[in-house]
């Protein structure tokens, strides 16, 4: 009879796995009784689990919202899993979870306090779903979240209460939604946000205060919206902004003060593919912007005119020096015309006045001459 002795390293691994399996079995029976036939253990049937059960990959597998995941899970991938709702039951005990991927599903709503137990979560990806509304408790529990991806959904409005607990969020991706309204102060709790992606939405106006408290924001992408009006103080609080993308909107004119309010040492501004109305006022705005060293117009040579029609599709850079010349000539012509009209009016008024008195200007001269002769004759007589 002989005994087989495991190497010390394999023995430690074996014992660790035994302990892990024992703990997991106890956890499973305590939290999820055998009588609950609807619950299913993800790692046993559907998902690929590695490094113990810290990394659980269920991507591409048709699953249900009743899946149960090991409590030590740190990375959970449920992308493209045919989910119609967030599996809140399986997330309740995932205190260690740091990354949660839910992209490419059919999720249309998020239940109240769905992520309340995920206090260590750092990345949440819910892009490419059908979400049209974020509730007031959407951010509850996500105090450590640094990256939130909500792109390619159906969101229409953004409200402060949906984002109020994202104090540590650094990257917020909301591109390719249907967002047309952002409540003033919506992002005021996101004091550590560095990147905000809002491209390809339906925004029409940027009001004062819409980006308030975002003093650490470095990148603001607003490309592909329908923005026509920008309040003069819309960007005032963005003291760290390095990239402002306003490409492909409906901006016809912009105030100099609107961009001058950016106080970052170097801000790159993108303004092409807008329907610019090229007049002297616009030329003056861009001339002033060029004189401010901290504001860099990266795509200025791609800025083209939409109106007036005679300048359509022409680069602003090729006509900007002539816009105010034409206006100056017009002003001079108008001034000269007004001056000639005024002189003519004065001459006509004087002529009419003489007609009314029945005298010609030469008659006045004759009267003056006769009076002078009479005075001279009288003086000579008195002298004699």
TrEMBL record:
Report if keyword Signal is assigned.
yes
Output the superkingdom of the source species. Eukaryota
Q: Which Pfam families match?
A: LRR_8
The entry's keywords: Leucine-rich repeat, Membrane, Repeat, Signal, Transmembrane, Transmembrane helix
Q: Which residues form the signal peptide?
A: 1-37
What parts of the sequence cross the membrane? 329-349
> Is RNA-binding included in the keywords of this UniProt record?
no
Q: How is this protein named in the record?
A: Uncharacterized protein
UniProt source species = Pogona vitticeps
Lineage runs: Eukaryota, Metazoa, Chordata, Craniata, Vertebrata
